[in-house]
Design brief:
Layout lengths: L7 E5 L4 H12 L3 E6 L2 H13 L4 E5 L5 H15 L4 E4 L14 H29 L2 E6 L12 H23 L4 E7 L28 H17 L3 H14 L3 E3 L2 H15 L10 H6 L1
Parallel strand pairs: 1-2, 1-4, 2-3, 4-5, 5-6, 6-7
The structure holds nicotinamide-adenine-dinucleotide (NAD).
């Protein structure tokens, strides 16, 4: 979409991190902005912050894992602003740990938000975009959607699915000569609230098996968060990349060239039927 001024952006997970940065970037481009999020205090603060900079903003409390909630979002956007133009399916949560320690509740939570959240977003918004033959869908995937690092099994599964959905959608719309564009956003580490995702985990999907972390685990987590604060990209940098991708109708957005090299190595292993490289973690690869 070349012209964004006066158009409508809808952003799930818009109360924090990259979603909030997209909201500010979209508002700066003159768009009306609807942000949807499950975390109400953060949502209210985000709406206030956007109003302070003069944005025309709608905040909707929404659980993307719930189809009814996402359809209610679509109805609220339509009432407030009319048709949506740029739809950012961005809400997401993360957890880490080896697959043999993942509970069914872990899987249900992460699949519900990261995968069904995208499905529900498409179900609610895509038919309108296609019918009007105008708009852009941004799917927030991850470098984890192209890799299989240890301790990220459920998260990677959802992000591989996100990449596949975005790519299928792009290919379908392009083949049909449609004016609906698609971007697959595949960030490396970005300094956001994702590393504290459990704050939004529903009680019904609480992990009854979770044990209190050891001192060693607490220290490792603190070191990791310190690394994120100092090394990771700022969400605003990613928001600029997404804005440019929407305007230029660019499909792939990677935020970090190092990860693209690692993904190339995986593709080479596949091409040469080499067993996957063992042992490297996403943090080691992110730091080079
Ligand atoms: N930060 C990173 O390093 C990184 C890297 C790659 C991909 N991502 C992806 O970026 C996206 C945005 O995350 P972020 O990094 O900005 O983290 P964040 O935690 O700052 O933002 C995620 C937002 O999603 C919301 N959310 C969580 N569950 C929800 C639900 N059920 N319904 C509606 N909203 C819900 C949260 O309240 C939060 O506002 C996610 O899809 C994440 O997987 C993040």
């Amino acid at each position: 979409m070349k012209e964004l001024d006066g158009r409508v952006a809808v952003i799930t997970g818009g109360a924090s991190g990259m979603g909030l940065a997209f909201a500010h970037r979209s508002a700066a481009a003159g768009m009306k902005v609807a942000i949807a999020d499950i975390e109400e205090p953060a949502l209210d603060a985000a709406v206030d912050g956007l109003r302070e900079v003069g944005a025309d903003v709608l905040g909707v409390r929404c659980d993307v894992a719930d189809a009814h909630s996402v359809h209610a979002l679509a109805a609220a956007v339509d009432d407030a602003f009319g048709a949506a133009h740029v739809v950012c399916l961005n809400a997401g949560v993360a957890l880490s740990g080896p697959l043999h320690e993942q509970s069914l509740a872990d899987w249900q939570w992460i699949l519900g938000v990261n995968l069904m959240g995208i499905v529900h977003g498409l179900d609610a918004f895509l038919p309108g975009l296609v019918e009007r033959d105008e708009g852009h869908v941004v799917v927030t995937a991850s470098v984890a959607g192209h890799t299989a690092y240890p301790n990220l099994g459920p998260y990677s599964a959802t992000k591989h699915a996100a990449v596949a959905i975005a790519e299928c959608l792009h290919n379908e719309q392009a083949a049909a000569g449609s004016q609906v564009g698609v971007t697959a956003l595949c960030p490396g580490f970005v300094a956001t609230g994702i590393f504290d995702s459990a704050r939004n985990r529903p009680e019904v999907l609480a992990d009854a098996l979770a044990e209190a972390p050891s001192d060693e685990e607490v220290a490792a987590r603190e070191a990791f968060l310190e690394m994120i604060t100092t090394e990771a990209l700022r969400p605003e940098q990613v928001a600029d990349m997404v804005h440019d991708a929407v305007v230029s109708n660019t499909f792939w957005v990677f935020t970090d060239a190092r990860h693209v090299d690692n993904i190339g190595n995986r593709h080479e292993e596949i091409r040469t039927r080499t067993n996957p490289t063992e042992g490297r973690t996403i943090t080691q690869d992110a730091l080079g």
